[in-house]
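Predict the 3D structure for this chain.
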Amino acid sequence: MCGIVGLMHTDPARRCEPEIVTKMRDTFTYRGPDDAGLYLDGPVGLGHRRLSIIDLGGGHQPMSTEDGSFSIVFNGEIYNYRSLREELIAKGHQFQSQSDTEVILHLYAERGEACVHALNGMFAFAIWDARRRALFLARDRMGVKPLYYAVTPKSFLFASEIKAILASGMVSARCRDEAVAEYMVFRQVAGPESLFAGVMSLPAGCTLTLDDGKPRIAQYWSPRPPVDRPQMTYEDARQTLTDLLQDSVKMRLISDVPVGTFCSGGVDSSLVTALASRIKGDRVNTFSIGFEEPEYDESAFARMVSDQYGTIHHQLTIGNAEFSDLFPRMIWQNDEPLNFANSVQIFALSRLAKQHVTVVLTGEGSDELFAGYPRYRIPGMAAFYRRVPSMLRSLVRLWGNIRRDHRIAKLDRYAGCSHLEALLYNSSMLRPDVIAAVSPRIMLGRFDHRLSCLAGTEGLGLDDVDRVSLLDQECFLVSILNRQDKMSMAASIESRVPFMDYRVVEFANRLPAAYKLRGGVGKAIVKDVARAFLPAETVDRRKSGFGVPLDRWFQSNVGMGERIAALPKQADPDLFDQKTLGRLVDEHRAGTHDHSEVLWTVLNFQTWKETFHC
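Done. Predicted structure below.
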């Protein structure tokens, strides 16, 4: 796990400035506190910060082949590197180290740009091909590892984090105004463009080649399933998923440094913990976080799993004041506004874990693959709800208001939407009318990337659950994985995500939706796998989502309560209606309404603008 940067001038006669690459590289020393390196070749410069995981003494980067033809900077882990290494040795390749980095380098020498098809792992790397005078970038299939780039009139830059590109002084920090609406609706920006004008994200499962001054992007993998999908019985599918997850966890335990797990007490992280404990055969370090507010505290379920498997369990309690202190720094770490408040928890937990291990396994991605979110039921329910008499709808709406259940409100809203809109807005966080009230100057657009992803699922024989799942995988999930990477790397911890093994992803997307959503219960097949390893209390309890008691904290007079109380006057008057924000703050703090979602969204965006001076 590392941080990578690079700079290439389009004029081959212009020499790359080492001080610029060094400044970019050292923007994120936390990504690689163990080692640093620099490579220069005419117009090209590569920089690397290393967190040593594999081959602690022999994996220095940038790394070059003996003849200097190819040089690489690499961030991530290749889990099948040992078998690939043996194949390459059999073909005559000679290795100077035991690192997975060198395997990529020789694989590129053997197969060229097609090397990515052989890799099972999480990765973002750049290879300078001195023979072709070409720069080649690649990102893993699901986008676990972030990789950003920018094109200026005279140069091309790339980095693991946006702040490193900004540190070059060649790209200014400017908000891309047309992306603000998407952030407000979905709390993240999907597709190749970021919230920063001029800064792009290489899409997941894609490569980029720069050999004529202009980047050429090619997609080498997609999570979308083939039209013809062989059917298997539910029991066969359950056993196959069990085998795939066991193998995925086993591969992700490969390390030359201590490995632990984040075990929140939810079914996904608990299952990963159970499998890791069985495979390792010794006591695993597990980490969880708790809250003083009982309804948000899952620590008892995490301890239950720890007791069952005899793990060395570490628990942290985070309160309002500490959360508030960490909040602005986490926005800086994330480059963009935080989509969810539990991003702060991930950093706090990573900081605790760093005292004991260097690698952790987590449960991210299961919900998007196996329809774990309750909202996956909404598009199908909306079709039925449209036929419900208006009087009954009024009672449902009243019940939703009393319960303050946003899912019921979403169901009621979707009853008046088109089918496409119901699918598109399934992962939305705020209603358009709420956004219009707090920020009347924001123009809601068409969200073309999301619509393009939805269009790509047509003709595949998928139902609504499958289509929403794929939309989330191609849009929403990337931001979740990137925040996991950035929050953990902020504490110099490597996060590995077994559910994101491409074999698990391909298998999940070939399954009928009925195997994922059964009897109104999401993630059914994952839970049935988990029953063989976990207590029923962990498997069958209601999904809590690793939540944060923002609604309570916003009502307090300290910490996040102080930040919210000051928000109406601090918010950008050119973007937000301060009077409306003031009313929402007053109503929330008085306890008459729960406006925590919109207040969190606005606070995030405003803090981001101030942090990066956009």
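The CA atoms of residues 270 and 517 lie 20 Å apart.
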